[in-house]
Design goal:
Elements (H helix, E strand, L loop, with lengths): L1 E5 L3 H13 L3 E5 L2 H8 L6 E5 L7 H10 L6 E5 L4 H9 L4 E4 L4 H15 L7 E3 L2 E4 L4 E4 L2 E2 L4 H12 L7 H8 L10 H20 L2
Helix pairs in contact: 2-3, 6-8
């Protein structure tokens, strides 16, 4: 899953990015509110972690502007403002969730998975289609109940397809979910990953039928 992180504290930001990466997220990190507002406008992210105390444009104003454009990207507010009125203001401005610093990275990852799941109308923690099941928390894929090894890119592609089951996604939309800033994208990259997914699925089926 591709996530936007808006946090101006270098130490905290680098820690969050590393922790989320270990939990299977792709993280683009911006350090001010203007950049956060600009990036969220692209619609390239499945969720965002937004600090309220951002320079150039306050996080609360970023949130208001994003929601005013009817952008529905799930936003988790991350802040040291722990007073109840501040939490209420953030939620009323359009935040989907709220965490007070300091945070536990495993909880942050779990909350983001839940936000993305709900945003796609999924109530179950595991995503299932036919004989294929994907468990985001365990970062595991099962075919007929047996684990299948996928590359990170193949896993992200399958996750995007299962989250959007019944919807048509363009190649550009899939590329947005698979690649972070600065990644070199070959013209047929998505097709290659889809081919590998199908081949691995067939191989898994053949192995169990021997």
């Amino acid at each position: 899953m591709r996530i936007l992180l808006a946090e101006d504290d270098e130490l905290l930001g680098s820690g969050i990015r590393a922790g989320l990466a270990q939990n299977g997220f792709q993280v683009d990190w911006v350090r001010d509110g203007v950049a956060a507002e600009r990036e969220l406008a692209t619609g390239a992210y499945q969720a965002a972690v937004l600090d309220l105390g951002l320079p150039r444009l306050d996080g609360m104003e970023v949130l208001r502007q994003v929601r005013a454009r009817r952008n529905t990207t799930p936003v988790l507010v991350l802040t040291a403002r722990d007073a109840v009125p501040a939490r209420i203001a953030g939620l009323d401005a359009g935040a989907d969730d709220y965490l007070i610093k300091p945070i536990d990275l495993h909880e942050l990852a779990a909350r983001l998975r839940a936000l993305v799941r709900r945003a796609h109308g999924q109530s179950e923690t595991r995503l299932v289609a036919g004989n294929v099941a994907l468990d985001p928390a365990a970062h595991q894929v099962l075919v007929d109940g047996q684990p299948v090894e996928l590359s990170n890119r193949e896993y992200d592609l399958l996750h995007a397809l299962l989250l959007n089951a019944g919807r048509v996604l363009s190649r550009e939309q899939l590329e947005q979910r698979l690649y972070q800033w600065g990644s070199e994208i070959n013209s047929n990259a998505v097709e290659v990953h889809i081919y590998h997914l199908r081949r691995r699925g067939r191989s898994a089926g053949l192995a169990r039928n021997r």
